[in-house]
Amino acid sequence: MILIKHITHLKNLLSSYKTKGLTIGFVPTMGALHQGHISLINASKASNPVTVCSIFVNPAQFNNPEDFDKYPITIEKDIAMLEGTGCDVLFLPSITEMYPPDDPVLVYDLGYLENLLEGKYRPGHFQGVCRIVDKLLNAVMPDTLYIGQKDYQQCLVIKKMIALKNYRLQVEISETMRESDGLAMSSRNLRLDAAARKKAVLIIESLRKIKGTIKEGDLTSITSRAIEHLNQQGFKVDYIQIANAADLQPITVWDGKQKAVLLVAAFIEEVRLIDNLLLN
């Protein structure tokens, strides 16, 4: 695996691959890798001669500075995992490499997508996501981008940004990888102590209960009961929302046919976890 820290070096290397007609798959990450990330690497390797992974903890998408400071860093373990998968290139830039002095701050017209759910509770978050993904795509210019469904809203935001910037690439969204008890794999799970980790599984259990009991009609009571239950168990729930799977517009009355997704964000102690489940 080739480790590169500078955009110009990365572009030069990848240009040499492209002149040979080799397609490039790209997996952007913030490190603290787990099997969910590795599944994306494997998906890329199955379809592309060249797979690039980036590790960059992006300060622009953290609306809470303390959250940024506490984000888990496991770079040596990450490198070993990537080497084990046969990843071809690791891009490991510094903050000044990605955000040089006087770097212009672009504003992305994301519409209502950045003002609901995660956008409501983390103002500015998705602008920061778009800013770094735009920079990374410009540096890598991949044929296919691989991202995970756990960040469902982020997937829609990234696809919107790609359309706005006219990038010519495919976006492959992989199903959420889960621990044996159902908890969605996440780098943030490393911050959970034993008691919180055990309790965290209640999030997916609540989603699965909703999916198993949902019926046509008014959905307000089913989500409010789930919120109340998690709060009683020591969580601080930001939202549990049933939404249109295509555009995340809230669904309060359901006809049983409309494609829907159930989304949740909740704190257990000081760690904020998100998850989602397609309902049909």
Tell me about this structure.
The protein is of the alpha/beta class. The protein is globular. It has helices spanning 7-19, 35-47, 65-69, 75-85, 95-98, 118-121, 125-140, 152-165, 194-200, 202-213, 220-232; strands at residues 2-4, 24-29, 50-55, 89-91, 144-148, 170-174, 217-218, 235-244, 253-254, 260-268, 271-278. The longest helix is centred in the middle third of the chain and has 16 residues, at 125-140. The chain has a 6-stranded parallel beta sheet with strand order 1-4-3-2-5-6, sandwiched between helices. The chain starts with a strand and ends with a strand. The chain has 11 helices and 11 strands.
Largest sheet: 6 strands, parallel
- Quaternary organization: single chain
Structural class: alpha/beta
Coarse shape: globular
Provide key terms for this protein.
about 280 residues, alpha/beta, 3-stranded antiparallel sheet, about 20% strand, 6-stranded parallel sheet, 11 helices
What's this entry about, in short?
This protein is 40% helix and 21% strand.
